[in-house]
Specification:
Two copies of one chain form a homodimer.
Chain A (H helix, E strand, L loop, with lengths): L9 H9 L5 H19 L2 E4 L1 H13 L10 E5 L26 H8 L3 E6 L28 H8 L5 E6 L5 H7 L2 E4 L19 E6 L2 H10 L15 E4 L10 H16 L3 E4 L9 H16 L1 H6 L6 H7 L7 H21 L6 E5 L19 H6 L3 E8 L5 E7 L5 H15 L3 H9 L1
Parallel strand pairs in A: 2-3, 2-4, 7-8, 7-9
Antiparallel strand pairs in A: 1-3, 4-6, 5-6, 5-10, 9-11, 10-11
Helix pairs in contact in A: 2-3, 5-6, 7-14, 9-11, 9-12
């Protein structure tokens, strides 16, 4: 029996479409079937019109291929504008509001032939406030993470091969860990985030999810952010294991994932050593807090002025600056981050190819009132370099846990080449994920 | 005879509306009359619906005041989304395209009671490509500057008291100089630019025009960016005259304005001294080029992919990276700017209150094929601090020329207080501007 189309990676589906062994319509119908059977539990989607999606897939089948992304369906986090669906921000203020214009990242993949399947649930404005109703595909009593909750759950549950998320703290990489999927947070500002709801200019980054590193690379090529990079071998690769200045927050699942990934890489011939960051890096977490709250105050002022009662208290607090962050503190936070970035970049070189660090404290926490803690992601978001989330293992609660690979700023192509080499070593559970969710 | 409402500053109009001595409708009708008499020459507006504007003014008259901005009409540069007009970017790609949602800065002033009179002409995407058809109010053979061409011309020609512009290089402060008006470019990221077309995340800044410093302050208060600041006296004020590393580009008009402003301040008791910037600042102009071109490549990729033939060559060149800017060069440009910002900020203190520097090489050049040169603005845009453009005098060609006051990052309130004290000294030509344009 042939593989169910919805079970393919994006790269496999692309190859089948390019070879005309599978139609775009077959792929979309398979995704819709999967969604129909699982949506009552996983609740990943805020808006999805099956008939519209099938019509678009049929159109794609009639057109000459626009490249590797042709005909591949996407989930789009509902803080990102799309021409053909509303953008609600999961906020009552924008209930049903449709802008009619694709955000920049959506325009690029649509212009490359991709289909927008629907909008995925999110934490309100990808910041604070209402949580998504989405559940973890591996256990509906647990969160899929957030704020890219629906995008992470939909890709993890084989409902759609690709999805956009965003990250200001840990909103993209953490759901990758919790849902057993691959995610790229590219270097800051290498992919335009126009039309993606702003929360913090210095931190907001668009990212995408897939089911293997090849999926992430295929999308990256459409964004032209990758230069050809020499092939990478795990043998001899210099990996720095960074427990990070917030290691006290680690849980059993996170510790297991990091040590498992490190051991597997060492067993495969990588040179794995502990990496300590210089002292100033210990303050980056606080700098992130100052920047995200202070910039958030400017970002949410329009809703504060025009729809005060409908805006979540946590967002009103940013405008009111309840943390009492002074201009001086904000400038010091900027200056610290600005000075740490080149220091981090220069650590890479002859003695360090890539940093291995936790994606999350551990497995997805129980309950939908939380999306987990971004404590292990914030520093790397502020450092602006590329991060790749890779699934690693299952933790003591039986849920997936991933790890993060980090590279210097603008090294996205090289980091993905490293990730492609490391992923088969780190990720020992792909069959287990299929078995658990497909039965 | 009472003053024509259109001839008032925004602050004067606000006071009259608050005191119910003038209705919002009277003000809007007066602006529309002025526009009707001058639009065939100045051509500041891309879209303006007089009946819609009058209806909105009547509504404002029926409502309780929402504060000082209540009933004041705005011109909005057509790279900025408004709920009630299209946003064309002056690009054939977006001809007639209406998004139906206010950009963040528009939402804030609308929520504060202001009226959106119409959309003003702009250089394509506020970047490169088609120029505005707008002319300089003082001589239609000359440019009003750009890219905020229509906003600058409309405020300068007394067609509207307030307008939004944007600045990536010198698009806001230069038109202030050329049109004899006041302009604030606030600290980077203190005012959300969501819904304003992106060109360069690191550089794009929203700004506003008015007819006096009080106008700029009144708007700034709606954006909550100003903290109360001690009153400022010109006597004893420490002013650093910065000819800047690009002084070789100065023209007669610009030299006249800078020396005139410096002399007037010194005559009024300020301590005026030349200010030299450290060597690394000489490279900021090149850093600006690397950043604006490289980031522009990401920003214009959506149109490059979806509407290649309709995108201006200069924008396609950014995507194609014809300047061949490497990742390394971009990172060096970021690192240079990041290291210069705190150095500049620290220059302010006991021996320096404010920097006085050119707003433009000189008067507005002849011809509408150019918008003039941003060479004297780019460094300050990259430094992220607030800039206030103040009219100073008329140059040898009989056109207005202004100067710029610069403060450290996040000192917007203090800089405006300094500007309020200095403006009556620097700007000796307000009656001359009225005489020239009102006859």
């Amino acid at each position: 029996m042939e593989t169910e189309p919805a079970r393919m990676t994006a790269a496999e589906a692309s190859a089948a479409i390019q070879a005309r062994k599978m139609s775009c319509e077959e792929l979309v119908r398979s995704c819709l079937t999967r969604i129909a059977s699982r949506d009552a539990v996983v609740k990943a989607w805020l808006r999805l019109d099956p008939e519209h999606a099938i019509r678009r897939a049929r159109e794609a089948d009639k057109l000459p291929s626009k490249g590797p992304l042709h005909g591949l369906p996407w989930g789009v986090k509902d803080v990102i504008d799309t021409a053909d669906y509303p953008t609600t921000q999961n906020s009552p203020i924008y209930d049903g509001f449709q802008v009619g214009r694709d955000a920049a990242p959506v325009a690029v993949v649509r212009g490359s032939g991709s289909l927008i399947l629907g909008k995925t649930d999110t934490v309100e404005f990808a910041s604070h406030g209402r949580k998504a109703v989405s559940t973890n595909p591996y256990n509906p009593a647990h969160t899929p993470g957030g704020s890219s909750s629906g995008s992470g759950a939909a890709v993890g549950d084989w409902q759609v091969p690709l999805a956009f998320g965003t990250q200001t703290g840990g909103s993209h990489i953490r759901p990758a860990s919790f849902n057993g999927i691959y995610g790229l947070k590219p270097s800051w500002n290498r992919v335009s985030r126009e039309g993606v709801r702003m929360s913090s200019m210095t931190l907001d980054t668009i990212g995408w999810y897939g089911r293997c590193v090849e999926d992430l690379i295929m999308v990256g090529e459409a964004f032209r952010i990758f230069r050809s990079s020499a092939p990478v071998e795990v043998k001899g690769l210099r990996v720095g294991v960074c427990r990070s200045p917030v290691w006290r927050e680690i849980e059993a699942g996170g510790e297991l994932a990091l040590s498992t990934a490190a051991k597997r890489l060492a067993d495969a011939g990588a040179i794995v050593e502990d990496l300590e960051l210089p002292d100033p890096f210990s303050w980056l977490h606080d700098a992130h807090t100052a920047i995200s709250n202070s910039e958030g105050g400017a970002s949410f002022l329009p809703e504060y002025v025009n729809a005060h009662a409908l805006l979540a208290q946590g967002l009103r607090d940013k405008v009111d600056n309840v943390l009492q962050i002074t201009s001086q503190q904000l400038l010091e936070a900027y200056a610290l981050a600005d000075s740490c970035r080149p220091v981090l970049d220069r650590m890479f070189g002859p003695s360090l190819d890539v940093i291995l660090t936790p994606s999350s404290p551990g497995e997805a926490p129980e309950g939908l009132h939380t999306t987990g803690d971004a404590v292990f992601n914030k520093m790397w978001t502020l450092m602006h370099g590329p991060n790749v989330g890779i699934p690693c293992c299952f933790g003591p609660k039986g849920l997936p846990v991933g790890v993060t690979l980090v590279g210097p700023q603008m090294s996205d192509g090289r980091l993905l080449a490293i990730a492609a080499a490391c992923a088969p070593v780190i990720d020992a559970a792909p069959e287990e994920r299929v078995r658990r969710l497909w039965g």
